[in-house]
Structure formats: structure tokens, C-alpha cells
Amino acid sequence: MRQEESNIAYFQEQLLGWYLVNGRIFPWRKPGLSKYKLIIAEVLLQRTKAETISKYYDGFLLKFPSWHSLVDAGPERIGDYLKPIGLYQQRSKRLYALAVEMVKRNGILPKDRSSLDEIPFLGQYIANAIELLIFEKRSPLLDVNMARVLERYFGERKMADIRYDPYLQDLAYKIADTEFSKEINWGILDFAALICKARKPLCEICLLKKQCLFFSQLPVMTTP
Question: Of the four, 46, 60, 108, 222, which is 20 to 30 A from 26 by CA?
């Protein structure tokens, strides 16, 4: 086994173990949810803390239980409900446009990735989430939070946009390539929120610090 592969295996093992004990509980992580409910969660979660969305998720589904209900409501009414969450105008327009498209498709999602990418208003992250959560493929939920954890541990990307950086994309898919792909994805996102924070990471209590590139480059604290 190459060093890179062993390092990835170690990372996966540690994160999965951590997630089983410390993973967060959210309504969209319950088993047996419909495709609609899963996609709605991922759209709402973009650029917003999961704890914030969890307060409005069930209520949103009660008010808008289907793609048809979103189309009937229109972007203005959708936006009115989403105002407390923030980014409501952008989010409501996207949800409405996506709903119109999904009604045209009778709610059917293509399993082929190239066909999935052709659906307007999805984007790379949502398409990855659909593959992972609906089609049970080993796809990464790669956003700025996952990128932060991976880059701190393994090394930084070269390109500004994570969607097009070949190193980070390849690494994320390698990390997700496990029979516990869903759990490792959620584990990394939870780890990013609770331990590997953007501004003040809790490096001293991090179970990955012995192998973490970011931690190895921190200045050594000396006692006077």
C-alpha cells in the first residue's frame, strides 16, 4: 500500500469512528426520506449552518410538500417563508426554477452523471448529493467545509474554485470511496463544524493532529 493510500485509510478510519460517537442528528439524515425531501435539504443547506436549517426544515416540508406545491406557490411566497434563514431571494428563485424543471420531468432523476449535470439549477454539489444519498454512489459532499478539513490534513489545492481543482476533486472522491461513504461525508462535515473550525480550530483535541499537515506547521509553544 502506498503512503498516500495508507494515509487516506487512516483518515477514513479515524473520522468514521469519531462520527459514530459525535455525529450530529438532523431530520434530513433520517432513513427512508423521499427524493424530494433529500434534495430540498441540500438546497437549503448551501451557505447556511445546518443548525439554522434544522429549525425550519420540517416546517418548510409541511408548507411545501412537493415540487408541485413549490410551483403553485411561486418564488415570492417561497421567499417569504425563507426570510428568517437568509439569502431568501436567491434561494427561493432557485427552488422555484428547480421545481418547475422537476415537474416537467415528473420528478424523475437520471442516474447517468452527464444527464444529471444537464438539469438546470442543480450544480456540482447537489448532483453529488443526489448520487450519494439517492443513488447510493460513492460521491463526496465537497463544499468549503469539507475542503478545509481535507486541505489542512493532506495539503492545499492549487485553484481558487474547489469545483475545478483536480487535486481536491480526486482526493475527495478517494475519501468517499468506502462502503460507509454517506457516514464519512457526514462525519467530515460534522468534524469541520465542531473541531476543524474555520477561524479557531480545536487542534489540541483533534484526533487527527499526529498526521495532520496543518498541525505540523503550527508554531511550537514553549514554556518560559
Answer: 108
Phi-psi region of 121 (alpha: psi -120 to 50; beta: other; left: phi over 0): left
State residue 4's pLDDT score: 81
Largest alpha-carbon pair distance within the chain?
Answer: 69
Q: Quick check: pTM over 0.85?
A: yes
Q: 31-137 in CATH: which number?
A: 1.10.340.30
Cβ(46)–Cβ(188) below 8 Å: no
**What local confidence, expressed as pLDDT, does residue 221 receive?**
53
Q: What is the CATH number of domain 1-24+138-216?
A: 1.10.1670.10
What is the rounded average pLDDT for all residues in the chain? 94
pLDDT digits (tens, 9 = 90+) for 104-162: 999 999 999 999 999 988 899 999 999 999 999 999 999 999 999 999 999 999 999 99
Residue pair 91/116 in contact (Cβ under 8 Å)? The answer is no
- Whether 186 and 178 have beta carbons less than 8 Å apart is answered as no
Task: Return the SS3 of 136.
Answer: coil
Phi-psi label, residue 197: left if phi above 0, alpha if psi -120 to 50, beta otherwise: beta
- Helical segments of 121-212, H only: 123-133, 144-154, 166-176, 181-194
